[in-house]
Amino acid sequence: MIRTCAVPFALAAVALLGAAPGTASAQKWYEKAVKKVEGKFTPAEAKPGQTVTFTLTVELNDGYHTYPLTQPDPKADGMVNVLKFPKADKLVFVGKTEDPKGSLSKEEPDLGIKELLYCPGTVTYTRKVVVSPKATPGAVAVKLDTFSLSVCDSNNCFPPKKVPVEATFKVLDGPAVAVEQTYAAEVAKALEGK
Question: Which UniProt keywords apply (predicted)?
Answer without folding.
Answer: Signal
